[in-house]
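Table 4 source record.
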Amino acid sequence: MEYWSQVVQRLDLPAKGAWLVYGLGTLLVLLALLLRRKLTWREYYVTFGIMATAGWLGNIVLFFQLDLLDSGDPSIGGIADIIVFTLAPSSIALLYLNFYKPNIKWIISLIFTGMAFVMEYCLTALGFFTQKGWHVWYSIPLYFVLFFFFLPWHLRYVRGKTEVHVNYVAKPPRGK
């Protein structure tokens, strides 16, 4: 019985501010699935994997290697960490790509940058994120690059519209 109580404790369910993580995570996943407009399941699958990987890489670099932030109980990785670094970035990216149109790229990028900033600010204000050298506003340029540049390129790439075709046939010399 002692073993299972330790397992439950390591899930870090009652982490400070975790209620917001659970609520936002559930809402984001449901919205990403229910508001499916123009992405194929293949695009969902690839985007989810890429963004989840990016979330965990960001966690490793910012939270462990550079030690700029902590989340929940920093000595363990709980359920809330899984939601914050796997489900939330993937769901936000899927929502963005479902609403993305090249003619409104600036507007939608700014809206999603603002939404991501507000979510991070709330998690910091509630104590889920502890800043140790990072300020919430440092994330704004990162979010903007993600939404304005990376995700549109990612969608074109997944759809096969940015492949480079190399012609291996030598051109005849000029003048002949």
